[in-house]
Structures are given as structure tokens and as C-alpha cells.
Backbone:
């Protein structure tokens, strides 16, 4: 077995004990990048000499007996919309193709402090607003399972590179499924943490922290990994109290474990988009595996998830409306078409131009939905839902025509409902359908990441191992 095939957890343990060299790991990943990235186009701004220099310093620290972080010497990719000092910060825009960041984002700083070797920048769509990872600045990222289907978005480069073995871990961010959906499309694990658990602080030079309220209150940073244990390890590294983040927690909470068996509410359909048969099959398999692991599974009707998804289209799109002309001007044609169809979908729900009263009432209603969902979940219940109502979309399905474009938005109700509510969710593979990975989503109460990760581990332990034939 080559080093690029090993898990992040295994690599970290091997490097710590000097069984494995960080330089050898970096070289193995770089060879894999050289082999596959020209086709997949998952990573951009890969600088081998810088990565190898960091790996040499990591080996020297081990030899010197220095204190080592949990990811010491482990390669990780970071996303082109997340500041990393001195590295590409293009947001997928041709006009910013040469832009670089002046300072590390808080989550990048956390990875660096944990000893990670930052190996490359992962591709994403323009402004990271599509569920497809293509842009005019860096081109199209392919899914390792099928070039004709999306690797997901917006963290599509992160998920594609993971599934292909280029890096064992990746950083992503999520305001509408941008971690969870790519993970499902590529057959890896992605975690959207509770809002505030991972700092979303960014350098003062970047005005993202002064962005719309929905961006501040809903966007999160999180990890993607090839397995649950790796994603859990990366989440622990990235989590931290940071009062610079206006929604950050003042101290990391210690959630009490459930007192008894964890109950699982299976939610298949909330009346927005009928699940595809392969999605239903994946839910059935996941429910069966959880029951086998001792979970109590029951089917639920949960219309509040539909309501939350509809609020996403109201609150997010109205927050974006003032800056929309500038986005459309700087973005590519795919962005322009997608946003047009997405706003048409929102107009069907809320009218062409929702007024301020509707916007204010939307935020007020959000609070009620959060309270009701937390009361339902308590400490001993989680939800099992689709990741999407459809299998991975065909490339550019969101811009093919208005009907298909709106159907894509509707299918993503499990991705859009959760950011509105701020609860944690994990996407975990549950099998293959027609040669494509199908994932399921687990949702827990606020700061119940360990509870849903335990359930994800139970699914992973029983699901078939997924490895693309590359």
C-alpha cells in the first residue's frame, strides 16, 4: 500500500512515532497529484517545494522531540475562497486569478498550528454559489467516479482530490451544502458543524466578516475526510473558541452523551422534491445498518425542514440582492444563469420582490423553527435524511434550462434547510447506484457532533467500501 492510500489518522500516528516520514508522505501525495490532477483539475496553486520544505521541518521537529500537533506532517488542502497567507485567493473569478491572501483565516491557522502540511488549494465555482465546481479562472473539476457528473459544489475540488487520493484531508465551507453535497457526490465524509464551533473569522483585509447577515450567521468552516475517524480528527483540530467571530462560542461546549439508546428519525420527503429510487434505497440501507448497530429507527414527517428550506431562498437571496449586480458582472456565465434560475425558484415561493416585512418575519420564524427542532431532538434523537433528493447531478444540470435549474434547487432541500437552523450535519457514503456514490445525511442537536459522528461511524462500518477506479 502506498502512503497516499493511508488514512490521516494512520499517517499522523506513523509520523509521530517516526515509522513514517512526513517527507515521504508529501512526496507520495505529490506524485498522486501529478498523476491525476491534470485530468480531474481538483487542486490549483500546488507548490511542491514549499510543501516539501514544510514536511522536512515536520520531520525535524519529530527528531528533536518537540511537542507535536494532532495533524503533524499530514497533508491537507484548503479552498480557494478561504484565506491562506501568500496563496491563491481567487474565489474562482478570472478578474482575481492572481490574487493572494495577506493572512490566514482562523480555520487555516488552526490546521497549521496542528502541524498540517498545506499541500494545495481546492477548486470551487465562482463565488462558491453553485453545486458544480467550474469557473473561468481555473476550469472544471471532474468527479473521480464519472466525468459526466458533478463532483459537487462548492467544495468540489476538495471532495474530488480526497476521493482520488491526492490528500487525506480537506478544508471546506458550507452555507447551502457546500461541504456535505460534494462529500456525497465523491463518496467521502463531510461535516457541517454547529454555527460557532469552528471560527469563521477572517483577516480584516477581507470584508467577508462584514458580509450579509445570512453569511455571518449561517456560513461555517469544516472538514472533509475519506472516513469518519479522519473527519472527526480534523473537526477537533479546527474547533476552537474565538470571540473575533461574531457568532463564535466563548468556550467549547462539552455535550453530555445520550443517557440511553439514540433514536433516529428517518425523514425521506418534505414535499419539495420526491426522492429518486436510489436515494430511497440508500436511506433504507442506512436505516437498516443503524438498527443493526442498536439505534431505534422510526420514520417521521417533519414539515419544519421544508419551511427552513423555503426560508433559505428568502433570507439568503434577499441578503444577496443588493450585491447581485456586482456578482453577476464579475462572475462567469454559469454563475449568471444559475442565479437567474435560483431567483426564479425563490420568486415562485415568495414573489418577485419580497418586502421588508416578509424578510423580518422570516428571521422571526427561523427562531421558532430552531426551538422546535431542538425540542424534538433533545439529547437522544438524531435525524436521517437524504443529502439530495437526486443522485449526483449531470454536469451543468443547474444551467441547462429553467425547469431543470429550478428542479436542482428543489432537490437540495436537505442542504438548504440545515444552514438556516444552524444545527450540525454529516454526509456519509451509503453505497453506489449506477456507478455513482450516494450519501445520506445525519442531523443532530446543536453541538451534538459526536453523536452524529458515532452514527456515521456505524453506517461506515457496515456500508461497502467506496474507491473510484482510477
Residues:
Amino acid at each position: 500500500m502506498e502512503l497516499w492510500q493511508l488514512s490521516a489518522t494512520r499517517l499522523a500516528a506513523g509520523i509521530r512515532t517516526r515509522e513514517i516520514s512526513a517527507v515521504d508522505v508529501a512526496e507520495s501525495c505529490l506524485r498522486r497529484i501529478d498523476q491525476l490532477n491534470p485530468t480531474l483539475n481538483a487542486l490549483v496553486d500546488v507548490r511542491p517545494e514549499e510543501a516539501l520544505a514544510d514536511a522536512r521541518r515536520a520531520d525535524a521537529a519529530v527528531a528533536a522531540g518537540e511537542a507535536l500537533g494532532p495533524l503533524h506532517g499530514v497533508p491537507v488542502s484548503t479552498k480557494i475562497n478561504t484565506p491562506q497567507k501568500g496563496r491563491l485567493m481567487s474565489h474562482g473569478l478570472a478578474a482575481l486569478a492572481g490574487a493572494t491572501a495577506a493572512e490566514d483565516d482562523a480555520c487555516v491557522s488552526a490546521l497549521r498550528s496542528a502541524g498540517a502540511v498545506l499541500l494545495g488549494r481546492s477548486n470551487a465555482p465562482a463565488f462558491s454559489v453553485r453545486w458544480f465546481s467550474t469557473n473561468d479562472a481555473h476550469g472544471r473539476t471532474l468527479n473521480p467516479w464519472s466525468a459526466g457528473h458533478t463532483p459537487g459544489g462548492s467544495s468540489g475540488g476538495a471532495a474530488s482530490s480526497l476521493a482520488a487520493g491526492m490528500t487525506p484531508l480537506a478544508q471546506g465551507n458550507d452555507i447551502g451544502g457546500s461541504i456535505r453535497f460534494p462529500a456525497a457526490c465523491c463518496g467521502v465524509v463531510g461535516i457541517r458543524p454547529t454555527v460557532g464551533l469552528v471560527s469563521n473569522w477572517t483577516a480584516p483585509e477581507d470584508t467577508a466578516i462584514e458580509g450579509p447577515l445570512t453569511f455571518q450567521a449561517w456560513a461555517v468552516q469544516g472538514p472533509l475526510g475519506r472516513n469518519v475517524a479522519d473527519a472527526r480528527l480534523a473537526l477537533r483540530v479546527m474547533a476552537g473558541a474565538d470571540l473575533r467571530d461574531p457568532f463564535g462560542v466563548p468556550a467549547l461546549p462539552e455535550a453530555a452523551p445520550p443517557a440511553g439508546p439514540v433514536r433516529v428519525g428517518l425523514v425521506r420527503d418534505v414535499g419539495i422534491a420526491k426522492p429518486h429510487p436510489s436515494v430511497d434505497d440508500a436511506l433504507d440501507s442506512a436505516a437498516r445498518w443503524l438498527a443493526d448497530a442498536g439505534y431505534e429507527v422510526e420514520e417521521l414527517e417533519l414539515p419544519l425542514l421544508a419551511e427552513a428550506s423555503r426560508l433559505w431562498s428568502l433570507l439568503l437571496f434577499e441578503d444577496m440582492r443588493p450585491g447581485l449586480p456586482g456578482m453577476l458582472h464579475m462572475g462567469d456565465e454559469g454563475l449568471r444563469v444559475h442565479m437567474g434560475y435560483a431567483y426564479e425558484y425563490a420568486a415562485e415561493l415568495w414573489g418577485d420582490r419580497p418586502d421588508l416585512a416578509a424578510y423580518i418575519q422570516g428571521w422571526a420564524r427561523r427562531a421558532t423553527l430552531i426551538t422546535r427542532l431542538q425540542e424534538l431532538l433533545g439529547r437522544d434523537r438524531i435525524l436521517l435524511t437524504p443529502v439530495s433528493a437526486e443522485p449526483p447531478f449531470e454536469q451543468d444540470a443547474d444551467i441547462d434550462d429553467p425547469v431543470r435549474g429550478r428542479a436542482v434547487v428543489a432537490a437540495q432541500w436537505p442542504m438548504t434547510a440545515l444552514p438556516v437552523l444552524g444545527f450540525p450535519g454529516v454526509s456519509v457514503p451509503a453505497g453506489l447506484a449506477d456507478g455513482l456514490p450516494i450519501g445520506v445525511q445525519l442531523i443532530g442537536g446543536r453541538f451534538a457532533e459526536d453523536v452524529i459522528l458515532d452514527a456515521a461511524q456505524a453506517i461506515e462500518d457496515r456500508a461497502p467500501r467506496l474507491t473510484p477506479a482510477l
